[in-house]
Design goal:
The model has no long low-confidence stretch (mean pLDDT 98). The protein is α/β, with parallel strands linked by helices. The chain is globular, with a radius of gyration of 19 Å. Strand 1, helix 1 (10-16) and strand 2 form a beta-alpha-beta unit. The chain is built from 11 helices and 8 strands. The protein has an 8-stranded parallel β-barrel with strand order 1-2-3-4-5-6-7-8, surrounded by 6 helices. It has a single domain (2-212), classed as TIM Barrel. The structure holds erythose-4-phosphate. Erythose-4-phosphate binds next to helix 7. It is found in: Cytoplasm.
């Protein structure tokens, strides 16, 4: 499963890249607003830092303007993925980009029926929002499982990009559910490595090693 950072904060991305685990980045209009930066500038900087797919979202709601915005975003760098909302206009725009060979991420997916439409529109990625479903009392991980079955049964190549993941358990469950990629913030990214028994075991190894008086170097 590919691991993407969900942020428009270039400093955060720069900090996480040396882990060698950042396979891509997703942004959305709220994250761009939070960065306080110009979208074209920030997306260009992110694309220079990370070779993998970088999602940049069109913000208009009508098909024609969405296509114009997507064309502009895609021209920023070859690894830009045009992010489009799961609406009829967004799906129409998705088909236009798919036919031009431009990668897309159909976002704000909350049902298997919507995921079916994204795949039929030729989406490269579909983003089911796990955390926001759970916020509304629904089963977000269950949706990932349903979409996996749906895409496998029908042979769709659209990749499932588990989104709105809020904690380590979400990331692990998204992987078990067969998601192709997962996106989440830097705090969750950093926490993936943690386990109290790793810390406890390491403390014991360090203490026992000190007693030997040896050095490997
Ligand atoms: C994904 O593409 C979205 O940017 C993101 O995962 C939304 O997460 P949130 O529900 O925590 O805002």
């Amino acid at each position: 499963m590919k691991l993407f950072l969900d942020t428009a904060d270039v400093a955060v991305i720069r900090d996480m890249v040396p882990t060698g685990m950042v396979d891509g980045v997703t942004t959305n209009p709220s994250l761009i607003a939070k960065s306080g930066r110009n979208i074209a500038e920030v997306i260009a900087e992110i694309c220079a830092l990370v070779e993998g797919p970088i999602s940049a979202e069109a913000v208009s709601l009508d098909f024609e303007t969405m296509v114009k915005e997507g064309d502009k975003l895609a021209a920023i760098a070859p690894n830009v993925v045009v992010k489009l909302p799961l609406t009829w206009d967004g799906l129409r725009a998705c088909r236009v980009f798919a036919d031009k060979g431009i990668k897309t991420n159909v976002t704000l997916c909350f049902s298997a029926a919507q995921a079916l439409l994204a795949a039929k529109a030729g989406a490269t990625f579909v983003s089911p929002f796990v955390g926001r479903l759970e916020d509304n009392g629904a089963d977000g991980i269950g949706l990932l499982e349903e979409i996996r079955v749906l895409y496998d049964v029908h042979g769709f190549d659209t990749q499932i990009l588990a989104a709105s993941l809020r904690n380590v358990n979400h990331v692990a469950a998204a992987a078990v559910a067969g998601s192709d990629a997962a996106t989440f913030g830097a705090d969750t990214f950093k926490a993936l490595v943690n386990h109290p028994l790793t810390d406890k075991g390491l403390d014991a190894f360090v203490a026992d090693w000190a007693k030997t008086g040896q050095s490997i170097l």
